[in-house]
Amino acid sequence: MADIKIESEITGTVWKIETAVGNRVAEDDVLMILESMKMEIPVLATDAGVVKSIEVEEGANIAEGQSLVILEG
Amino acid sequence: MSAYEKILAEHEKQKAKALGMGGEKKLAARREAGRLNARERIDVIFDEGTFVETGMFVTSHRPEARDRSPADGKVTGFGKIDGRMAGIVSCDLTVLGASSSLNNVKKMGHMRRTAIRNGMPLIFLNETSGARIPDTMGAQGTGALGQDPTQFLRDREIPYVSACLGPSFGTGTWFTMLSDFVVMRKGACLAVSSPRVTSLAIKESVDPEELGGWRLHTEKTGIVDYAVDTDEEALELVRKFLSYLPSHCDELPPEAEPREAGADPEKILEIVPPERQKVYDVRKLIAAIADKDSVFELKPKFGKVATTAFARMNGKVVGFVATNPMFKAGALDPDGCDKIISFLVMCDSFHIPVLILTDTPGFLIGIEGERRKAPGKIMNFMTALQMCTVPKISIVTRKSYGQAYLNMGGSRNSDEMGAWPTADVGFMDPNIGVNVVYGVTAESDPQKFEELKAEITRDSSAYDLAAIYSAQTVLDPRETRDWLLDMLEVHSRGRSRGFSKRRLASWPTTF
After folding, report:
1. What is the DSSP letter of B47?
2. ipTM of this predicted complex?
3. CB-CB under 8 Å, B327 with A40
4. Rounded to whole angstroms, what are the CA distances from B96 to B23, B57, B168, B188, B206?
5. pLDDT for res B511
6. B313 touches B261 (CB < 8 A)
7. A4 and chain B: CB distance < 8 Å anywhere?
8. Predicted pLDDT at B284
9. Which positions fall inside the CoA carboxyltransferase N-terminal domain (chain B) (predicted)?
10. With an 8 Å Cβ cutoff, are B279 and A39 in contact?
11. Interface probe with B: pick from A27, A37, A43, most Cβ of B within 10 Å
12. Does residue B511 lie in a domain region?
């Protein structure tokens, strides 16, 4: 199956990672929480799949459009 | 055999030929692939036994193609959805690729004029390869087109709805762009020209999904409201969408039996956290406020910082416009503006009151936004809001900052504004304001920073806003539904019997 790239929709920092490689996730499951504009912003799975890799670490600065998680659909 | 028997036998033969579409072999292949044919789709979408066809005996104008062009590839007619009349153009891909031709364009013109004149929605079931070749070749082929100068004029006298159930190019695409609601079957391709024509023109291979797939149109262009797996799901969504709209602009939206609220009002306090750094999904709030199970979201995967949805309040149709803190903290971006504008256009065109829920840190600023014409979008949004003459009732639930406060109905930009006690309204965050005005940050000079911050900070509470009557009341969040129902009654536009002035009816919404 094709890889699904989950990208950040906003510039900010990674506050908490809430999933792990190998986890099976459903659409709209929370994968990690970013901090931006003084808000805790969840990153949701766009599709159901299995977490293939996590591309960032907690505390990292991230830019809009940066790849955060790869799912295997 | 009597003379009449012969005539009628021939008539039955002609009918059977038309109903046989592109022949059993092609129809069997569709069945195999799980696709309904053009006539089965009509049977599914309309109430049983209500379809009446116009143009059954039309064929290609070219004598050599006459025998292989039943209904000339586009089945047209009228039928009922929940007892209300609608017109339909159903493409038959098995007949010359359902390509647009001299004669089937006459049928489409008749459908459009008849639907508009008599006040009924027009449904396009698209699965077409585009213009027919060789019919349109050369100066005379092309010059024969465009005989109706209002073909693509959209004044929203009636709703237009499109379902793209297969390839959709040329005319199929144009009418999709003009539609109020679009649903797409996954695997379909919606573009100016087919991937094959496109790749021949630009001399490189083109991926149909990239050129016009469902992800592109639900997430990036916002043209398509929903992508589904089957024909049946697509047709059901068309029926559902139309249940919220009047048949035409001279009637009000259909009412349903009033229902209880979607959730106990106490639940609202659980849905919206009082802590300003916590996010929540505004769609849960809308579902709690509106009549139970009455919410129908539009463009759910596009411009997600904003939520636009039809719903019912005591059985009457309303349109919710909200910022959604779940995405980008609810900071409005260009896609969010486009989404709200297109929704305001629909509400104003069909007399649907607008209910605005605001929780936004403002417009999302940045280079990407400027490149995508954010300032222009913000003013288009503002113009649309001010031209929109349906009742507009707004509530500030938490944050509402800067220009976004005005765009979301702040002060006189809605008919009545309430604020929850959790509201926080101002021009910008004082922490940022100190830096902007004085160039001092909490890190560079903590003491000075605190002094200056105290100096520029102004009260930003709901009561401060209500004290100058820019919010007309401060509401217990649990009273939200009751207050909205009261205000819908107050701002009922009684003198025009609830009809808007439809000033947005001709606004182009294919941003």
Report:
1. P
2. 0.77
3. no
4. 12, 16, 14, 18, 23
5. 67
6. no
7. no
8. 97
9. 3-257
10. yes
11. A37
12. no
Q: What integer pLDDT is reported at residue A64 of this predicted model?
A: 86
**B277, A10: Cβ pair inside 8 Å?**
no
Record: fold of A3-67: OB fold (Dihydrolipoamide Acetyltransferase, E2P) (2.40.50)
All structural domains of chain A with their residue ranges:
3-67
> Residues in chain B with pLDDT < 70?
511
Using only C-alpha atoms, what is the Rg of chain B?
Answer: 26
pLDDT at B365: 80
- The helix (H) or strand (E) run that includes residue A69 is strand A67-72
Q: Do A42 and B329 touch (CB under 8 A)?
A: no
Q: Give the count of alpha carbons within 13 A of B320, CB side only.
A: 32
Residues B389 and B296 in one domain: yes
Residue type, B126: N
Q: Which of B329, B368, B429 sits opposite A41 (nearest CB)?
A: B329
Closest partner residue to B368 among A39, A40, A64, by Cβ? A64
For residue B329, the chain A residues in CB contact (below 8 A) are 10, 36-37, 39, 41
- Domain limits at B471? 265-423+461-493
Give chain B's contact residues with A (Cβ, < 8 Å).
Answer: 276-279, 325-329, 331, 361, 364, 366, 368, 429
Q: Does residue B397 form part of some domain? A: yes
Q: What radius of gyration do chain A's Cα atoms show?
A: 11
Which tokens go with B23? Answer: 């022949």
Concatenating the DSSP letter of every residue in B271-303 gives HS-SSTT----HHHHHHHHSBTT--EEESTTSS
pLDDT tens profile B240-275: 999 999 999 999 999 999 999 999 999 999 999 998
